[in-house]
Structures are given as structure tokens and as C-alpha cells.
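Example (one chain per record):
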Amino acid sequence: MFRFLHSSDLHLGKRFGNFAGDLPGRLREARHSAIARLAQHAREHGASTILLAGDTFDTETPAPEVRRPALAEMGHDASIRWVLLPGNHDSLQASQLWETLAAEAPGNVVLALEPRPLALAPGVVLLPAPCTTRRPGRDLTDWMSGEPGTDGAIRIGLAHGPIREFSEEGAAADVIAPDRAQRANLAYLALGDWHGGIEVGPRTRYSGSPEPDRFKHDRPGEALLVGIAGPSAQPEVTPLATGSFAWRSLTLHLLEGDDPAAALDTLLPPARERRQTLARVVATGRSRLAGRTALAAAAGHAAPDFAWLDLDDAGLATECEVEDLDRIDQAGALREAANALLAEARDVSLSAADRDVAWKALARLYSYAQEIAR
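Predicted structure:
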């Protein structure tokens, strides 16, 4: 049986500019560390080859401090062969990048730069479809169907791009035929581009990124261990955990009378997992003004335990009664401000975003008033 690891979309050097502090650096380092985790899995499971189905680098001009350590880590164990395919982020259009990689790559790193068969082992042939540009405008796997294979060979396809609705940018002209494995008599088609693992068919899969980088997929980082006994044999595919960070989207539904702080604490992961977790909590349902304020305070208290924690309470309907405003102030400037904010929060002529801003400002005012009262 021929065994290999299927991975993709490392996006080495990704900047993560939407985060602050030391988190972008931690996330970038985690992506680099995924190389060693992939190699360890290969050793433990007897896989001699790791296929990277595109977007190894996040840009066409990765800095030397991104590129060279990555190649050095891949070259650390010469018994493992790495096959790098150009993706849409690091396409062949970046000719200088691939020329530099060709000059710097250790002997066990193979660059799949042409649509032609590459021998992986006796009786095992790789058919790569490197991305020519960011948006090629055609199905780059077409050539696989017309390529005569060695009699009795295990044919493995390697490509990067969308199948049907799986495109993240809606580039319809770039759609890969979903039945390409069948058309081209492939034992397996290893795909990249979609950052969450997807089984398109028994012989066609997206591995997903080994290190998550968004909330969209809500899946752990994985690579796929693939074993193929023969050209017509069904591939044996086993997901292997590779991610060091977890990206979690959590829904918190509240009813009036619920204890928001207790509900949030129950929803959040255990304390020891939080440092490596980016969590987005989406609050829905209904709550009194005091409850909404308590929820924000609880999220603020928990946030330092996490790599990143965000509370989205735009979908939380807030009830506010006279006694809630009385707790801010019964008269004077604070009460006038509270009345004005409540009027804006309930004004249906305003946009939902503006009303949400008013609710948040009222909750903040309520919180300040309670702190002063204490």
C-alpha cells in the first residue's frame, strides 16, 4: 500500500492584521510549526510523501525569514519527500518565487511546476495541476483525463481550486470538474483551496488547512493520511489532528431571567484550553438591560484567558423598563442621556447598526452607574 499525507493552504507568512498585540506573531509561528507536525505524522504512519495542494505561502513574495525556515524544516528529515504545488496565492505567475525556491529547496522538496506526470514510487504516478495565475479562468485538471497512465499505475491527482460552490471568491470559470477522479481514472484527487476538510467523493477530498485561520469552517486543523492498495482500490483516508489553535464560533441563546454570566461560563471551553482558542460568541434571544451589562462584563473578565474572545450581541434583544433607568439615575443629566439613548435604541427609523450602537451605549452607561453606586 502506498501511503502519503494530503495537506494544503499553509499560507505561511499570513499577517493576521485584524488582530493586535502578540497574537499575529503567535498565529504565524503556529503555521510554521505545522510543517513539523505534518512530518511527525508522516513518520508515525509510514508515509514517505507529503503532498501540499497549493498556497504553501500566503503571498507571491514571501519574505526570506518566512521562506527559508520553511524549507529548512522540510529538509530536516530527508526520508520524507515534500511536493509543493503552486496555488492561487503563490501561483506560477510569481516566477521569481519559484525560481528562488528551486535554488534554495533541499533535495527532498519537489516543486510540481508543470502539468506532467511525476513518479512518486514504482507504480505510483502524480498528476499535478499547478495554478498558472490567481484566476486561471479554466479547469486546470483537464489534462489529467487525456494523459495516458502507466498500465497498472496508481494515478494521484493534485490540484488547487474550487469545485462547484466551494469557491471562496465565486470564480465560476475556475471550477474543477467534480467527477475529475472518475474521468481521469484517478485513485485519488488531492485538492486545496477550501480551508476546511470536505469529502467531495470517495476519491476526491479537500484536506483543509493544517492550522485554522478563520471562523468560517468551524473545524479543527487536520491533514489526511491516505493509503492506496492499487489503482482500482478504494483509498483509505484518515484525518489527523494538526492544529495548535482552535477557532470556535459559539451561540449563546438567552431568555429573560437567565443568568448571562453563568450561561457564558458554561458555554466557554475549559480554562486550560483557552490560551490556544480564538472564540466568537454570538448572543441571541432576549435579556434585560442588567443582563446585557452582566454578559458584557463576564466576557470582558474572561477575555484575558483566551488568545482572542469577541462578544457579538447585536442579535440580543434588550428589554428596558423604568426601573432599569432609575438604577442609572432618577433625574438630571445622566437620566436625560439614558432616556435619549433608549429612544434611539427603539427608533425603527434608524438603521439596525445605529440602534445597536445606542443599546451598547445605554448598557455602558448602566454599567458605569452601577460601578459608581458600589
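Caption: The mean pLDDT is 92.
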